[in-house]
């Protein structure tokens, strides 16, 4: 059987209540568009984030898997964000038992509806409270409706007067007298669901529906009240269908049962989309590969012809020079002939002479089995030189063509490698599950001697760190300069924080302060208790976001050196970044880089670190994450590769 490619109407009927339970009442936090056909809504609902994935050609569901998101949002994505960011999802429904889902949103007094059309090539449209289209994935001008911004949204015309939602009596009247195979069209069931109905009733597709029309109608209606038992159907270890309950047509086939239909759909389409995607990529590469190989064969044949011509002209030129005196004498005598009467005498004297053509002013001679045409009024040496020029010309062409063939070979090998990589990936790849992000992962953080050190990244995270996560026994640090992160040493209980931990926290605070960008070599850092930190400004003053008042005595750590280590630690083929002092990072890294303030841009420093990591570790690290760890313009003071401890001092 063929693999299911898109959700049918019955699937959507059983899916929508689960989606309604999961996301209605939730708030849209983020929106992503993964070209061409997929939109992901990250929804904050019931205290957790849920990712609604919408592929308008195939399916929609709540996904547990990570999707690679584009670095730059599309125009369609920006449009959706403009209208739907921070909006509340108020409802989700199926439209008239069609493969169309409507999601309703509200933000303030504004109301919006998103229509997901899982029909034809698929579409996603957003309408305002008047039903006018304000954003859409694909503009379409069809015979029965126009889908474009500013147009009133209209549903596609229905091809059936009855649906499984219709009363059984209406379904009975509609199917009575029809061939059993036609119920898929009459009731809008689709072939698989129609086959399931006929299988349950023991009716052949060729039968005419008469007295059993009522049974068919009741069976169709019963599909809407089946006990949920979502499952994926397998054939030869391949997933071929996902269904909301047990189907008789799949009896005997291997099945995987899931708690929810959303989970079953998520697994089915995520894994199968990868297979389809990899298959399409492979087919595209193979087609390009075949085209290149064919072009290469043609170019190789052309090279062969060029070399043959070059060889032929060289051979003729050499024969002319070998017989230069005889040919010169022959041509001189022919030039003195007034008519053709003496040609026969010349042929007896010069057996190489085969023909003389006074009209074209050429003679044909045979030299060592090679027929060569010579101009009568041109010296043989000039003719030979002309032939040598042709030899040179064809050799140059052959040389250029060989370079082209080398380029073809490189491209062919690259494509073959690409096909192998895709096939290897398809065999070993598994979708990555979304992992819950810990609260401290939105900040800069390290752990030293069992103490967690957490620092803000900017004004927003400074504000959040102090307001939400600063607790009674914590230590709060700040550099003695305007433009510094707030840093917490998390204690959990009353305890004495070791001096080494204080120094490490002070280093993080100092290095990510404005002092680095200003080119300082050292700066003072102070620490206080949480009850000394206040958001209340003095009368008549205002504290901007991320700023706090410090009351009472400040405990200073003087002259903190701005020397930041960034390390990479590899465990079980997974790497992570480590930051801090050289002493701390050297114990927890396979390679580290000691940075100090300098004049090289962060991008240049990041590229140098990437290159060295690739050279020493055999892979490249994430440049975006690395850039976030570099405080500002820098220079690399030291590179240390562990455990063999090869140290490279540098003034990069």
User: Strand fraction band?
Assistant: 25-35%
Q: Residue-averaged pLDDT, rounded?
A: 89
Give start-end ranges of low-pLDDT stretches. 644-652
N-C termini distance? 62 Å
Tell the overall outline.
flat
- Which strands sit side by side, in order, in the main sheet? 18-19-21-20-22-25
Compute the number of strand runs: 30
Reported by name, the CATH topology of the domain at 9-147 is: ibrinogen binding protein from staphylococcus aureus fold
The main β sheet shows up as: 6 strands, antiparallel
Annotated CATH homologous superfamily of the domain at 9-147:
ibrinogen binding protein from staphylococcus aureus domain
The CATH architecture assignment of the domain at 9-147 turns out to be Roll
Structural class: alpha+beta
What share of residues is helical? 25-40%
Question: What is the CA-based Rg, rounded?
Answer: 40 Å
Number of helices: 16
Write up this protein.
It is a single chain. The protein is α+β, with helices and mostly antiparallel strands and 652 residues long. Among the domains are: 9-147, ibrinogen binding protein from staphylococcus aureus domain (ibrinogen binding protein from staphylococcus aureus fold); 162-225; 437-555, no CATH class; 563-652, no CATH class. The protein is 38% helix and 26% strand. It has 16 helices and 30 strands. The model is unreliable at 644-652 (pLDDT under 50).
């Amino acid at each position: 059987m063929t693999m299911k490619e898109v959700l049918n109407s019955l699937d959507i009927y059983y899916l929508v209540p689960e989606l309604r339970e999961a996301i209605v009442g939730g708030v849209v936090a983020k929106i992503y568009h993964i070209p061409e056909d997929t939109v992901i809504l990250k929804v904050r609902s019931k205290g957790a984030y849920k990712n609604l994935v919408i592929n308008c050609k195939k399916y929609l569901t709540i996904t547990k898997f990570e999707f690679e998101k584009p670095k730059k949002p599309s125009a369609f994505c920006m449009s959706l964000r403009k209208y739907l960011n921070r909006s509340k999802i108020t409802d989700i429904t199926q439209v008239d038992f069609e493969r169309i889902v409507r999601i309703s949103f509200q933000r303030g007094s504004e109301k919006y509806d998103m229509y997901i059309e899982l029909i034809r090539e698929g579409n996603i449209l957003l309408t305002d409270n008047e039903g006018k289209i304000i954003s859409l994935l694909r503009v379409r001008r069809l015979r029965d409706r126009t889908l474009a911004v500013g147009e009133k949204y209209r549903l596609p015309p229905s091809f059936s007067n009855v649906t499984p939602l219709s009363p059984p009596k209406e379904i009975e009247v509609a199917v009575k007298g029809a061939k059993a195979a036609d119920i898929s069209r009459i009731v809008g069931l689709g072939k698989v669901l129609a086959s399931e109905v006929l299988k349950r009733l023991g009716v052949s597709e060729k039968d005419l529906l008469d007295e059993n029309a009522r049974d068919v109608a009741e069976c169709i209606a019963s599909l809407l009240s089946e006990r949920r038992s979502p499952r994926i159907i397998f054939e030869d270890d391949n997933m071929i269908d996902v269904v909301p309950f047990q189907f008789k047509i799949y009896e005997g086939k291997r099945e995987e049962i899931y708690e929810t239909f959303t989970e079953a759909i998520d697994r089915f389409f995520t894994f199968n989309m990868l297979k389809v995607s990899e298959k399409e990529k492979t087919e595209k590469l193979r087609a390009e590969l075949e085209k290149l190989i064919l072009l290469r064969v043609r170019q190789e044949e052309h090279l062969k012809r060029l070399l043959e011509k070059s060889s032929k002209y060289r051979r003729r030129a050499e024969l002319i020079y070998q017989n230069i005196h005889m040919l010169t004498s022959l041509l001189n005598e022919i030039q003195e002939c007034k008519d053709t009467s003496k040609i026969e005498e010349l042929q007896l004297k010069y057996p190489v002479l085969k023909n003389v053509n006074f009209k074209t002013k050429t003679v044909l001679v045979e030299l060592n089995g090679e027929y060569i045409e010579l101009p009568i009024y041109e010296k043989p040496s000039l003719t030979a030189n002309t032939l040598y020029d042709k030899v040179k010309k064809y050799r140059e062409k052959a040389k250029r063509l060989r370079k082209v063939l080398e380029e073809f070979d490189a491209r062919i090998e690259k494509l073959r490698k690409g096909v192998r990589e895709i096939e290897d990936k398809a065999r070993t790849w598994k979708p990555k599950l979304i992992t819950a992000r810990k609260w401290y992962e939105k900040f800069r953080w390290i752990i030293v001697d069992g103490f967690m050190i957490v620092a803000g990244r900017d004004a927003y995270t400074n504000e959040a760190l102090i307001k939400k996560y600063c607790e009674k026994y914590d230590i709060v640090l700040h550099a003695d300069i305007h433009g510094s992160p707030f840093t917490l040493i998390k204690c959990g209980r009353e305890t004495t924080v070791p001096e080494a931990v204080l120094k490490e926290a002070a280093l993080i605070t100092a290095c990510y302060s404005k002092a680095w960008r200003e080119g300082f070599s050292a700066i003072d850092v102070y620490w206080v208790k949480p009850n000394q930190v206040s958001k209340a400004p003095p009368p008549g003053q205002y504290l901007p976001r991320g700023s706090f008042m410090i009351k009472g005595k400040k405990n200073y750590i003087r002259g903190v050196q701005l020397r930041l280590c960034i390390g990479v630690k590899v465990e079980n083929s997974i790497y992570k970044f480590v930051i801090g002092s050289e002493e701390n990072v050297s114990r927890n890294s396979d390679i580290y880089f000691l940075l100090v303030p300098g004049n090289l841009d962060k991008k240049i420093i990041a590229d140098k670190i990437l290159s060295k990591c690739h050279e020493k570790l055999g892979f490249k690290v994430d440049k975006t994450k690395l850039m976030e760890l570099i405080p500002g313009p820098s220079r690399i003071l030291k590179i240390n590769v562990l455990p063999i401890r090869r140290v490279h001092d540098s003034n990069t």
